[in-house]
Fold:
Amino acid sequence: MRAAYGEASAEELAELKLRAASDPKIQAKLDRHLAVCGAMQSLKEVPVSQLSNERLREAVLRQGLKPEAKRSSIWSWAWMPTASFILVLMILPLSKGWMSSAEPQVVLKSDLNPAPVAKVEPIKRSALPAPPIRTNLVASKTAEKPVVAPVRTAERKAPKQDEAISNEMLYAMFVSAETPAPRTVVARPKPVVTPKVTKPPTEVATDAGEPIILVDRGPDPTTGTGGRATESKDTNAILVGG
Amino acid sequence: MLFSSAVSFLATFAGFAAMPSPQAKAGTETFVSLIQNGRTVGVAALISDKGKFIAHRSAFVGSEVDARIRAGTIIRLKVAGEDRVTRLICLDAGSALVGSWTSLLPPVDGGSVELQAVGPRGISNVQMVDDSRFGILGDNLRLVPLCEVRLEESEGALVNSLFVRGTEFRGVLVSSLSISDQPPAATFSALSQNFQAYGPGALQISFITGPKLVRRAMNAFLAGESVVRHPFLGIVCRNALAGGAEIVTVSKNSPGQKAGLRVGDVLVEIEGKAIRRQLDFARTMMEQEIGDRIRLVVNRAGRQVRIDAVVGGSTD
Structure:
């Protein structure tokens, strides 16, 4: 186990290598694992504590037991108005941008007369080419992604179980062949999540996707395809019946 | 597997004669060529063992059309039904059909995205890329589901075509975007530019009828109805600034008028579903069936009013 976590002493590692030498497969796995361990430890971004449950637990306990820093009674609240002001300055321009893109824009081509075939602007879609489009119709997708009604999540997603046992699996990769005795896997303690009790939102008739709206302008005799001459409009300006 | 077999069968379609359906037994037929004034103008597909065909309204003019079956025999088809929204028509061969025939089935949701467009000019392979498009068709400004399809051919390949997936009839063309004809490449530079236009960037983009719409039309045709009726309240709505669908028109003697809906009412809920704009109303109406009793909630002069209405039917 200590070897798996890269904590084994030189003697322990030598003994493990000696035992693994009897089986080429185990030897190969051990070599590969040691190489991975070495590579992981060489990553400076990865805290050492992540390689060991014990170290992680110690780190948490150590930080949790630190005495809370005393703060000045004045500065404990003085930063709040400043932070609020900065936050408002940041949010205002962003919200203006969101509002302007809240409603989708569908390309409008209304000059069907006198020409029976509408010359339609190219569809604004990144996946499409921009060749000159001669069309009997039209339709264009909105330039911006529509705003989706926010739906609150009732409960946070719990961490995956397999993340907690990754070290065990790592160890079993090369040790299990030698130690067939069953092991008890202790999962990393999960953070306690208090489920939010929220009222389910009213079901909305629309879905999240913004439709491409083709507005029928009657048959188009010029193409002979049986298609309809169509135009597209801002979805806000469209009249719908039913 | 299914696709390849379908293509192999479809590839037998030649000379604009009738062709077997993709999974039909050898010798059976499903399609006929429509002929008017000595010219092949479209294709019709059998949808019933009783000799009913389905075709695109724009294929020919009038109430009758000649059809050529594989053996070269010409039979007369009469228009027996029409859907003014999808522009599908039902053609009746009466007792003129002889031989072994296999009919196409109504479309089902989901499944393969590979379709074939069967038209008087031949067969094109088509890829369905999105089945959640919408269009507003007909005099009643009806919002209908459409499917976006793409193919690597010009729109001419879709002239009066029928779209087929295996043994399913998927519908007809509603409209398409076409790429303008490019002049012949006279220089290597121009040739290379044209070459770069090939591939996904040069796909033809078209919209065909959605499966729900096609099923409704086919069911009406198979039931012997001469017209196809769609759910209808008889109102036209626009987007309300404060949210909801504001009624701007209420047709006389329509189900909406009989239920008490008025111009200026703002629909905010239908059958428990919030209506936040006019498109929500249109989509909700798409899901209704004729004869359904639905509960509407409208804002009228600052107060909410609950109204029960019975969904009627309209041909457009």
Summary: The radius of gyration of chain A is 32 Å. Chain A touches chain B through 46 residues (CB under 8 Å). The CA atoms of residues 191 and 229 of chain A lie 59 Å apart.
